[in-house]
Amino acid sequence: MTSTKTKQHKRIAIIGAGPGGLTLALILQRHGISSVIYEREQHDKSHERGGSLDIHEDSGQLAIKEAGLFEAFQRLARYEGEDFRLFDKTGKIYMDEIVEQDSMGERPEIDRGELCDLLLSKLDPAQIKYDYTLDHAVTLENGLTELHFKNGFVETADLVIGADGAFSRVRPLLSDVDVEYAGLTMFELNVLDAARRYPDLSAFNRRGKVFALDDHKGILAQLNGDGRIKVYVSLKVDRDWLETSGISCDDPKAAKSSMLELLTDWGEQLHKYIHYADDTVLPRRIYMLPVGFRWKRNPSVTLIGDAAHVMSPFAGEGVNLAMQDAMELALAIVRNDDVSVAIQEYEDKMYVYSSEKARVSYDNLVLCFSQEAAPKLAELMSSYHE
Ligand SMILES: Cc1cc2nc3c(=O)[nH]c(=O)nc-3n(C[C@H](O)[C@H](O)[C@H](O)COP(=O)(O)OP(=O)(O)OC[C@H]3O[C@@H](n4cnc5c(N)ncnc54)[C@H](O)[C@@H]3O)c2cc1C
Q1: 162 Cβ inside 6 Å of ligand 1
Q2: I want to staple 307 with a disulfide (CB 3.0 to 4.6 A). Which of 168, 256, 327, 329 is the partner?
Q3: Looking at ligand 1, which residue's alpha carbon is closest to its atom 30?
């Protein structure tokens, strides 16, 4: 049974204030439809909100335009962040792309935290509740959904949108399928204030991204807006490798020594990404939903972003798809009085474009951690430019 309230009076609950949830709430707000976002983090935990993300012209940027923030975005975006260099372990270079001065490329960079702040700057603060971690959700007989939060509060909503990332607590309402390990484990490192403290590495890294790939391993580095170079030392290993390897991130110095041993025959310049990193090491396993994942349709619950189709970061699509989903769903809600029709329109469209990107992302992951990965990736990327 679904509620007969008009959409302006329906209680719309969005779980998660990442780029997806915020974009959705903001576009709805611009059309006079209010919603409430429930976010697990505290409001003030804004300093560690992720690295640099490239925002694509045909998806993320369209959503930003729909949210009315494109000019403000252009002022913050780092167009020069599209610089890209590709090496093998010896330091042999396969690609060296430099964005021309003042050029406005298609995929400028912005830090995840800055992007969230931009979206928050226009969102009515009454529409977001912090420190609300969804524990579980229950569909009631009257068609409403009951939301149980870890802080003890219970709320009900006519429409629930899971924008709560890879480990979504809304997804179990729709499917038994869970994320699976994508075969890749990373150590996240940060070289802080790189230009001032380590000009040699800063000159090598330039203004954007560096990939060094070889022997089923990788060093992936990217300059962020706050001057740090974020580095991911990436290994194709079994899921339990972190435990069995004996490497503990609680002892960052020892962990960094172990990384250097694992990459002992890699070039001196590449080692600097580890030598110069500060003493915080974060382990990250990469998870994905099956390519082409779909769920059983529910007239009052749906998913957007990583909750709907988390994939490895090797197509650079995570944030772009999340924002595109948000735009498509918001506009479908605006167009239709019946939210179940809006959900159907959105899901039918989203399944098509997201499964294509999930396939590319998975294929890129396999390629980047195969033998001779650097020349293979260079060949693939040059085919895009032909
Ligand atoms: C802290 C963080 C850092 C990241 N850093 C990078 C990066 O450097 N590079 C990159 O490519 N991608 C990064 N990502 C992933 C990237 O942001 C996503 O792929 C993309 O933005 C998809 O957006 P989303 O809104 O669907 O999900 P997310 O960005 O994952 O946002 C989900 C939101 O939901 C909240 N949430 C989760 N569970 C619950 C719950 N149970 N109850 C309430 N709220 C909940 C989270 O706190 C978060 O705010 C990061 C994600 C996070 C959460």
Answers
A1: no
A2: 168
A3: 165
